[in-house]
Design brief:
CATH topology of chain A: Rossmann fold
Strand content of chain A: 15-25%
Structural class of chain A: alpha/beta
Oligomer: heterodimer
Shape of chain A: globular
Number of helices of chain B: 25
Number of domains of chain B: 5
Order of helices and strands of chain A: EHEHEHEHEH
Number of helices of chain A: 5
Helix content of chain B: 25-40%
Distance between the termini of chain B: 62 Å
CATH architecture of chain A: 3-Layer(aba) Sandwich
Radius of gyration of chain A: 13 Å
Number of strands of chain A: 5
CATH superfamily of chain A: Response regulator
Structural class of chain B: alpha+beta
Distance between the termini of chain A: 16 Å
Chain lengths: 122, 848
């Protein structure tokens, strides 16, 4: 099979590193970036199947990144992941075309399941 | 963030209907996935409401957010799937969402907040970032201007940076994890250890610099003193007060603010604060300690005010006042003067003198000290001052739209400073019901005082004076103390009742006693003298009486265990009214209409039905020769439509009807082999023949969510080469299988869900237990609620995963026929053992 390529976007490095390591152990190919701008640059350089995006980030927030990604790379599924449950932001994310909205803390198995569903051929 | 119905089409979902059938099919699969997830969350909400274990505010918000967002996922997905903008559906969703969000949602923050913010830049929209105390003071500053002293907020971001610095947070977590916090001695030990850790840890240099710079920038003379007060997230909510649980530091020089901040953070780990979080079900990590730093007011008098207290004479505003700094009014060390005002007439209508022998004043250096109060000094406030202070409270009530409690201070020049504002507790502060009559013949040990927390209880008297007394206090005691100190809160999980000589119904301890539903009688003047240690007594807090011995007439009238509907559960219950009920069920005859949806459950049901219809539409196109949903021809009674997501069927398939040989999807083939395993050709008792189920005159059954639903609806299998998502129904049973078989074991998984049936709940539960045991025996992780069984297994090599799918296929067939047979636990056990033996003939009809 072809490896599933995941782009992880979160300004909190202490969250990013362990998640990336655990997803890699489950056979996913992970690239980590710490801002929306870096995410857009990464997407312009290499193909991804799916992006896991923190909602709350400085400068470009997760919803703005989602908005731009849906315009420029609609084939890349976006999973929003946040520690701050918010109906307004979650629903907004769905309206903007997010694949899923997940709340931290999340079991790594559940995250992997979601990534695999998001990345499957469509 | 404003969000109207029109937003539903502002983003990607406004894009035209997805062109490819495979893409539409994948969308359909995702909607059905969201349906299952949403129904699962509804079950968890019902469980949380029925449970009596503590429920954290964060958990309420997680549940409510998750179910609302999954519903949005269905609504948005359906609009994309059908390409039709169903205005009624969108409007119903937006209305329901708004009602739920108003009950539970916090203002969303899209950007992280700075470590330090000036108070006048903080408003209630930042409550999640700086804590409610700072946020509401920011609002008060806006409403009242000069009555709020200048200052700044230290945010949750600062707290997280502090804990992340040099592993402090991990060390705290390790101490908490190692202690049994319900044990008072261990709780004190853990508290001492963590307090030392926090007070001696270095602050991150940039945080320390930011705090010191902000302290230097507060307007005022160079020797200005500041108050550094806790403003924890979750603190000061309408029913989660955390009243008095954390420390404040007064009269702090500008250059000492950073050190005081550390000590406020450390106070998050006082024994009473740890206990309070434990009792209320908060995780340590859920609460970030923020701070509010204010220029110090040189208080001549201070106190608290409650804008709206119910009294027999109507709503009244109460102003409690003490001499000196305000702590004495809330820490239970003095009985304050009480000024009663009529909010309608805006005037003073009553005055009750208090008892104050000492007062707290700022020292000329740092900190505070207690000094004696002269005997009989007269009222603390003049009538005009009481009305001035109450007037500020009324303005705040108007600005915030709800009754408030306010901490205030009055300086020598007559200027009033507002130090804290929070929504007033909903609990009536003054008993409305007439006190229950005295019990004739019972010995009255103590009379009078204020009912700080209503209720009755009995137990042996334990007098508590020192921390050592706290440690020694056995469960079930009637705790008797001179001062109503917040320190006593550590005993609330175990105390039968609290009785104190001093203290007021507005004190911190009274607020938390009401939350914990522990009866409390304060301001009795002579409890420590009248109640002998060890004596069994009965406390009637409502009536203001303590009797000798156990007085059954008093206790008998009260429920043994008063219902503990805490604020979080009440909030979840209020939101659940817009989530859980299914009102569409009675309207099937006239067809579903989005207009009729009243709750999220209705919307979920509607979207599910509409998705099924849309997928039927895909099937019709297949019958017309398009690619799309194909009927799977089989001896199995399941009416299964297969939808190819890409690579799941042989490339040369062109017919609308296929056989399993046309299916390439590995999980589907393995599952099907199990469902059609020839060893299962047995014949147990069942209500109708299999054929009868599908062609039965019975045309309606009860759906898994309780609604009426047509039988004969097809099952849908979404397939790719490695992936299967099956939503199946056979008879009254519903099964979902979500599976992926990959050459890399790490990417393989199988999840299986089975629910439903036409028999009574007992037999269905028995079937649930049987399935759970068989799946568990084969290495699945399982959970069960009545007849709903969830099972998962992961990370197996392809061949092993195929075996598990084969097993699940067999179990689906097996379970479809079991309900009627499982008339007793012993029968279920026979079936279980037969299945494990590989005897799929099951005693050749022994139970038939």
């Amino acid at each position: 099979m072809t490896t599933t390529r995941v782009l992880l976007v979160d300004d909190e490095v202490e969250f990013l590193e362990p998640i990336a390591a655990r997803l890699a152990r489950r056979g996913l190919e992970c690239t980590s970036v710490t801002s929306g701008e870096q995410a857009l640059a990464a997407l312009a350089q290499a193909p991804y199947d799916c992006a896991i995006v923190d909602v709350r980030m400085p400068d470009m927030d997760g919803l703005e990144l989602l908005r731009r990604m849906r315009r420029m790379w609609p084939q890349v599924s976006v999973i929003l992941l946040t520690g701050h449950a918010s109906i307004e932001l979650g629903v907004k994310g769905m309206e903007l075309g997010a694949f899923e909205y997940l709340l931290k803390p999340i079991e790594i198995d559940d995250l992997v399941d979601t990534v695999l569903r998001a990345a499957r051929p469509r | 963030m404003a969000s109207g119905a029109s937003d539903l089409f502002s983003g990607a979902c406004a894009s035209p209907k997805p062109g490819g059938l495979a893409e539409r099919a994948a969308l359909g699969a995702e909607i059905l996935h969201a349906n299952n997830t949403a129904l699962g969350i509804i079950t968890r909400i019902q469980e949380a409401l029925a449970s009596t274990s503590p429920l954290a505010a964060a958990e309420v918000r997680r549940l409510v957010t998750a179910v609302t967002v999954q519903t949005a996922r269905m609504v948005v997905g359906l609009v994309r799937l059908t390409g039709r903008r169903n205005r009624a559906l969108m409007e119903r969703f937006e209305e329901t969402k708004a009602r739920i969000a108003a009950l539970t949602d916090a203002d969303p923050l899209l950007h992280p907040v700075a470590a330090v913010l000036p108070l006048d830049e903080v408003g209630s929209s930042l409550a999640e970032a700086v804590g409610q105390k700072s946020a509401l003071l920011g609002e008060a500053s806006l409403a009242l201007g000069g009555n709020v002293p200048p200052g700044f907020a230290i945010s949750a971001a600062a707290y997280h940076a502090f804990l992340a610095h040099q592993g402090l947070g991990a060390r705290i977590a390790a101490v908490l994890a190692a202690a049994d916090l319900g044990d008072v001695a261990q709780c004190f030990a853990a508290s001492a250890q963590i307090t030392t850790l926090v007070e001696t840890a270095p602050l991150p240099p940039d945080l320390e610099a930011a705090i010191t710079a902000a302290a230097a920038a507060v307007p005022g003379p160079p020797d200005l003193r500041l108050a550094v007060r806790s403003s924890a997230l979750q603190e000061g909510g309408p029913d989660l007060s955390f009243a008095g649980q954390y420390r404040s530091f007064l009269n702090v020089p500008r250059d000492q603010v950073a050190a005081a901040y550390q000590r406020v953070v450390a106070s998050k780990y006082s024994p009473e604060a740890i206990t309070y979080r434990l009792v209320r079900g908060f995780e340590d990590g859920e609460i970030a300690m923020c701070c509010c730093v204010l220029a110090m007011t040189d208080a001549r008098a201070a106190g608290v005010l409650f804008t709206s207290c119910r009294t027999p004479g109507g709503p009244r505003t109460l102003v409690h006042a003490v001499r000196g700094l305000g702590i004495a009014a809330v820490d239970g060390s003095a009985a304050p003067d009480t000024f009663t005002l009529d909010p309608a007439g805006r005037r003073l209508v009553g005055y009750a003198p208090g008892v104050q022998t000492t007062q707290l004043v700022s020292r000329s250096g740092q900190g505070t000290q207690r000094v004696d109060v002269a005997a009989a000094p007269g009222p603390v406030l003049t009538e005009a001052q009481a009305e001035l202070i109450a007037g500020l409270g009324w303005r705040l009530e108007a600005a915030l739209g709800a009754p408030v409690d306010v901490e205030w201070a009055l300086d020598g020049s007559g200027h009033v400073a507002i130090l804290q504002v929070r929504p007033q507790s909903t609990e009536p502060l003054v008993a409305e019901a007439p006190p229950r009559p005295r019990v004739a013949g019972a010995t009255v040990l103590l009379e009078g005082g204020s009912p700080a927390s209503r209720g009755v209880a009995s137990g042996p008297v334990v007098q508590v004076d020192t921390d050592l007394d706290l440690l020694r206090c056995p469960p079930g005691s009637v705790v008797v103390a001179h001062e109503a100190s917040p320190r006593l809160a550590v005993l609330l999980p175990r105390a039968a009742a609290l009785v104190a000589d001093l203290g007021e119904i507005t004190s911190h301890l009274a607020v938390v006693a009401r939350e914990a539903r522990v009866p409390a009688l304060f301001a009795t003047r002579r409890a420590t003298a009248a109640l002998a240690p060890g004596a069994e007594v009965t406390v009637d807090a409502d009536g203001g009486v303590v009797y000798a011995g156990r007085v059954a007439q008093v206790l008998g009238g009260a429920p043994v265990a008063p219902p503990t509907v805490d604020g979080n559960r009440a909030r979840l219950a209020a939101a659940a009214e817009h989530i859980v009920p299914l009102t569409l069920r009675h309207r099937l005859a006239s067809g579903f209409s989005a207009q009729q949806c009243r709750t999220l459950h209705d919307l979920i049901r509607f979207c599910h039905q509409a998705t099924i219809e849309a997928l039927f539409d895909l099937g019709d196109r297949a019958l017309r020769g398009d690619t799309g949903a194909r009927r799977l021809r089989s001896a199995c009674p399941i009416d299964c439509r297969v939808i190819d997501l890409g690579g799941g069927l042989r490339a040369d398939v062109s017919d609308a009807e296929i056989t399993i040989d046309d299916v390439v999807c590995r999980p589907m083939r393995a599952l099907w082999r199990g469902m059609t395993d020839p060893r299962l050709s047995w014949n147990v008792a069942r209500p109708v023949s299999r054929k009868g189920f599908m062609s039965s005159v019975v045309s309606f059954g009860f759906d898994e969510d309780g609604s009426v639903r047509e039988l004969g609806e097809p099952s849908f299998a979404f397939v790719s080469r490695e992936y299967l998502s099956l939503n199946s129904r056979i008879g009254y049973h519903f099964a979902t299988v979500d599976a992926r078989i990959d050459d890399q074991p790490e990417a393989s998984y199988l999840s299986f869900r089975f629910v439903g049936g036409s028999t009574g709940v007992e037999q269905r539960s028995r079937r649930g237990t049987l399935l759970q045991r068989l799946l568990g025996h084969h290495g699945f992780e399982t959970d069960r609620r009545v007849d709903l069984v969830n099972a998962r297994i992961r990370r197996l090599p392809a061949a092993a995963m195929e075996e598990k799918l084969h097993l699940v296929g067999m179990l689906m067939e097996f379970a479809n026929h079991l309900d009627m047979a499982l008339t007793a636990d012993s029968v279920a056990l026979d079936y279980e053992q037969a299945f494990l033996r590989g005897d799929y003939g099951f005693g050749r009809g022994a139970h038939a």
